[in-house]
Amino acid sequence: MNPDPAQSPCVSVCALDSDGICLGCYRTGDEITDWFMADDERKREILKDAALRREAAGGIKLL
Question: pTM here?
């Protein structure tokens, strides 16, 4: 169990690429929208998926 709530990966670089992926946090547009209503488990899934996309993009890390 994770005692700390999942933190938003937003880095205030809000622009979606042609695939609908944010250039700042690597979340999809739907994931960004879902974040506000998601429970902590779903947020952690979103974070994991975004991290995989970031790695696939060449490992660029803004954080």
Answer: 0.83
